[in-house]
Design goal:
The complex is a heterodimer of chains A (about 180) and B (about 140). Chain A is built from four helices and eight strands. By secondary structure, chain A is α+β, with helices and mostly antiparallel strands. Chain A has one domain: Chemotaxis protein chec (3-Layer(aba) Sandwich). In chain A, strands 1, 2, 3, 4, 5, 6, 7 and 8 form an eight-stranded antiparallel beta sheet that branches. In chain A, strand 2 and strand 3 form a beta hairpin. In chain A, helix 3 crosses helix 4. Chain A starts with a helix and ends with a strand. The relative contact order of chain A is 0.23. With about 140 residues, chain B is of the alpha/beta class. Chain B has a single domain, classed as Response regulator (Rossmann fold). A five-stranded parallel beta sheet of chain B has the order 2-1-3-4-5, sandwiched between helices. Classes of the chains: A alpha+beta (about 180), B alpha/beta (about 140).
Chain lengths: ~180, ~140
């Protein structure tokens, strides 16, 4: 069986992103990351409350321009935030800290991925923008979609979604925050 | 009868540090990791960007500066350029803590007298190694 060049590129891309998430999870969050899939993600999205969902979007410029979005359930974000902060329980995590942490999570994943992928060239990351809301707009993508590339990852067995859209121009400045979103 | 002279163990002076990062959670994590090292850490100051950091440096003595790179208002690289131009901060140790570990950025930092370059994400024990190196060098 042979693989097409595009499927090989996608596999490399997915492996690089998974590796970046694993590095962040293991080094800073005391957690374990593994590959997941769309079915597991959609199942998790169905089970979680539609309001308890977080998206962190970060734009990058450098050898490649684009944006990375991390979408994850609020309960997972709280657990990871507690681990990151050294809190005894996720109940101790306040909303402001949760927003800040989710943005930093996207920042660390994006920076690690770009460093490992580009190696030689410096890049610039814009301040992350975090949005609260349901995962419904993330569900239903199909392999034929021409939108951002999607990679499904699980941290401690809870699925989350990474979307990368390369080639997007005119990156957001810190001031361009859409309604309902938070920039730290 | 001569009085015995007690040999005093050398107690290293506590070092004051400034943590510059636009993420409050990251600043907290760095401070917690520094406090957990058991090393003599004095005052720990915080700033959310390079401009705030310069204001802190104008008012307080800081032995070691830990800065992120990508920040709004003033980046860590611009902060380091400003620091490099000031005689009174010549001896302050400079450490970068950033997700950008590219060769180009490391070279840029090296030209600005950065002693150590720590890539995010990092394990908390990395902070112990960094601070041990800094305190031993004093």
């Amino acid at each position: 069986m042979t693989s097409s060049p595009s499927s090989l590129l996608l596999a490399d891309f997915q492996a690089a992103l998974l590796s970046a998430v694993a590095e962040v999870a293991e080094n800073s969050l005391f957690a374990f990351a593994d590959a997941s899939d769309q079915t597991a993600f959609e199942s998790a999205a169905d089970q979680s409350g539609t309001d308890d969902w977080l998206d962190a979007r970060i734009r990058f410029t450098g050898p490649v321009d684009g944006q990375l979005t991390v979408a994850l359930p609020g309960a997972l974000a709280r657990r990871l935030c507690a681990a990151f902060a050294g809190a005894d329980s996720a109940d101790e995590v306040g909303e402001r800290d949760l927003i800040d942490f989710t943005g930093e999570l996207a920042n660390m994943v994006c920076g690690t991925w770009l460093t490992r992928t580009c190696q030689h060239d410096a890049f610039t990351l814009m301040p992350p923008i975090v949005q609260c809301g349901g995962p419904e707009r993330r569900v239903g993508g199909s392999p034929g979609d021409t939108g951002p590339a999607r990679v499904y990852v699980a941290i401690d067995d809870t699925p989350l979604l990474l979307e990368i859209d390369c080639g997007t121009a005119a990156p957001n400045g810190p001031g361009s925050v859409p309604g309902g979103a938070y920039a730290r | 009868m001569s009085t015995p002279v007690m040999a005093e163990a050398a107690t290293p002076a506590a070092i004051s540090i400034l943590v510059v990062d636009d993420s409050a959670m990251m600043r907290t994590m760095i401070k917690r990791a520094a406090a957990a090292t058991g090393l003599p850490i004095g005052q720990i100051y915080e700033a959310a960007d390079g401009q705030q950091a310069l204001a802190v440096l104008e008012r307080h003595h800081v032995d070691a500066l830990f800065t992120d790179i990508n920040m709004p208002v003033m980046t860590g690289i611009e902060l380091l350029r400003q620091v490099a131009g000031r005689e009174q901060w010549r001896d302050m140790v400079r450490v970068i803590i950033s997700t950008d570990g590219s060769e180009a950025r490391r070279n840029e930092a090296g030209a600005l007298d950065v002693r150590l370059y720590v890539e995010k994400p990092f394990r908390p024990e990395v902070m112990r190694d960094v601070l041990s190196e800094l305190t031993a060098a004093r």
